[in-house]
Write a structure and sequence with these properties.
By secondary structure, this protein is of the alpha/beta class. It is built from eight helices and nine strands.
């Protein structure tokens, strides 16, 4: 018993994950935290708070395969990060056969937007922010038509995913991405709390109690 407790404590310390099972509904929920920067194939600085996709993907597979886990709660406070890795996580979350609820705390920026809307139902706290901007690329970039085509293809993948998992459309997402009037040194839009709901990106403004209550309701109703 003590060994199991130590394993759970280690998962909480290293991966920000734990099981929530001490509730009146007797549902077993898995808690997944996506915080800091989503790390891709290259390791970031040790001083950078990261979420590693090689940790998250196997855990999501385990959640899907574990008959005892009834639902997934995703907490997000991320500045974004690697696009390919973020989309991989988002696709995994969206393809789970079990109910998933997400809650944006602090912020869910850039690739964090697809991660938030990948859930079956999403919440954002009143002061939470979402930043929608065009795809950026770090490092050396070859100034060739093929490069810009690749950028456009990647951006289309992101806008398509957001549109198919929210109540907004691709045209409006692109408008928000290419907004020139809000960020002084960049393109894009910052949405705070209720603005994300008004745009149809997030379902509802709420906190942790609302998110947990909704997840229990979806489990009881067999909703996905």
């Amino acid at each position: 018993m003590s060994e199991q407790k130590e394993v759970k404590n280690q998962e909480m310390r290293e991966y920000g994950q734990m099981e929530l099972a001490d509730n009146r509904q007797q549902h077993k929920l898995h808690l997944l935290s996506i915080i800091g920067e989503v790390e891709g194939h290259e390791c970031l600085s040790a001083n950078t708070k990261t979420t590693k996709y090689e940790h998250v993907l196997p855990k999501l597979a385990q959640v899907e395969d574990d008959r005892e886990i009834d639902g997934l709660l995703v907490l997000l406070n991320t500045v974004g990060g690697d696009v390919e890795s973020g989309l991989a996580i988002a696709e995994m979350i969206a393809s789970l056969s079990k109910p998933v609820v997400s809650l944006v705390l602090g912020g869910s920026h850039s690739i964090g937007v697809p991660l938030a809307v990948a859930a079956d139902y999403s919440f954002i706290v009143p002061t939470g922010t979402m930043v929608i901007h065009p795809v950026r690329m770090s490092g050396t970039v070859i100034g060739a038509p093929q490069t810009y085509d690749y950028f456009q293809q990647m951006q289309d993948r992101i806008t398509g995913f957001i549109a198919s998992h929210s109540q907004t459309n691709r045209e409006r997402i692109e408008e928000l991405m290419l907004n020139t009037g809000m960020l002084t040194k960049d393109l894009g839009t910052i949405l705070v709390g209720h603005q994300a709901v008004e745009e149809g990106i997030i379902n509802e403004v709420g906190g942790i109690s609302d998110a947990v209550r909704r997840l229990h309701f979806m489990i009881n109703e067999g909703c996905i």
